[in-house]
Amino acid sequence: MSKIVIFGAGGRAGRHAVAEAVARGHHVTAVVRDPARHQHLLSPTPATLATPAGPTPATLATPGDPTSPATPATQDVTPASLAVDGRRLGGGERGGHGRPAGGGIASAGGGVTLVAGDVTDAGSVAAVAVGHDAAISVAARLDVPSAEFYVAAARALVEGLARAAVGRLVLAGIGTTLEAAPGVMVHDTPGFPEEARAFSLGHAAELEVLRDASTGLDWVVLAPPPVFLDDAPRTGRYRLGGGQVLPSSGEATFPYADFAVALVDEAQTPTRHRTLVAVAGLQG
Ligand SMILES: NC(=O)c1ccc[n+]([C@@H]2O[C@H](COP(=O)([O-])OP(=O)(O)OC[C@H]3O[C@@H](n4cnc5c(N)ncnc54)[C@H](OP(=O)(O)O)[C@@H]3O)[C@@H](O)[C@H]2O)c1
């Protein structure tokens, strides 16, 4: 593995995924709608990785942005400039699920190329993805109906990645689409808030698009626990499960940094195929 394209790279999960992948020596193409707003991706620091104060995905809508200049703006940065929490990130800090530390990592003298793109447009996906070994999508929008955005993105990723001959896709899912009990998704449990359910149903519809895909795309959707994620320090450790909520080990949240470790692991060394997988922390 040496080249990973990340859609939604300027978001909370995206910033951590970029830093994680580059620190392992991968070359990352960071896809954002407006590169001018995401120059921080070229030199991630604890400050730029932190979630800005303000709306969170599950609670509030954010204003839309003008999208996709026709010509991608590109800039590069070397991994030597990357430090998070005062230390270098590295694949060797993983290990909670028994993977070899750093195993299978092909150092390509990694760096970031920042490009404009639209994850809901198959032509844009194909254009930015060509030549990559794997794709990660952590794109999200709250200012359009969830089902509209996630279904459009899933369709564009299926078609665009096929055109670009990229065979592996790792998506960020949501824990509320996991089963709380056999056959019962968390968002269908009694008392689940209606607004959050509507958002979750968009993710569920995205899953159906992926399940119906006939292009041979090797996808996996990683669903964090149904809690807010935070900017706690990276531990490099996590659990993968199946389609059910993983038993709680007492944690109230899950760090974006560890979610990013799992996303990059599954892009780099796939272990799950064409399925929804729960991911959660180890502590407790
Ligand atoms: N507990 C859980 O299960 C849980 C918790 C957190 C997140 N999640 C899921 O993880 C995913 C990522 O969440 P997040 O917190 O990182 O979201 P986020 O901070 O809102 O970031 C989303 C990013 O997607 C980008 N984007 C929007 N439309 C796009 C498009 N058409 N093309 C390319 N990029 C586009 C946005 O770009 P701009 O910068 O241009 O606006 C933004 O930077 C979401 O699907 C969310 O539902 C799950």
TrEMBL record:
<protein>
    <submittedName>
        <fullName>NAD(P)-dependent oxidoreductase</fullName>
    </submittedName>
</protein>
<dbReference type="InterPro" id="IPR036291">
    <property type="entry name" value="NAD(P)-bd_dom_sf"/>
</dbReference>
<dbReference type="Pfam" id="PF13460">
    <property type="entry name" value="NAD_binding_10"/>
</dbReference>
<feature type="compositionally biased region" description="Polar residues">
    <location>
        <begin position="68"/>
        <end position="78"/>
    </location>
</feature>
<feature type="compositionally biased region" description="Low complexity">
    <location>
        <begin position="44"/>
        <end position="67"/>
    </location>
</feature>
<dbReference type="InterPro" id="IPR016040">
    <property type="entry name" value="NAD(P)-bd_dom"/>
</dbReference>
<feature type="region of interest" description="Disordered">
    <location>
        <begin position="44"/>
        <end position="104"/>
    </location>
</feature>
<feature type="domain" description="NAD(P)-binding">
    <location>
        <begin position="109"/>
        <end position="267"/>
    </location>
</feature>
<feature type="compositionally biased region" description="Basic and acidic residues">
    <location>
        <begin position="85"/>
        <end position="96"/>
    </location>
</feature>
<feature type="domain" description="NAD(P)-binding">
    <location>
        <begin position="8"/>
        <end position="43"/>
    </location>
</feature>
<dbReference type="InterPro" id="IPR051606">
    <property type="entry name" value="Polyketide_Oxido-like"/>
</dbReference>
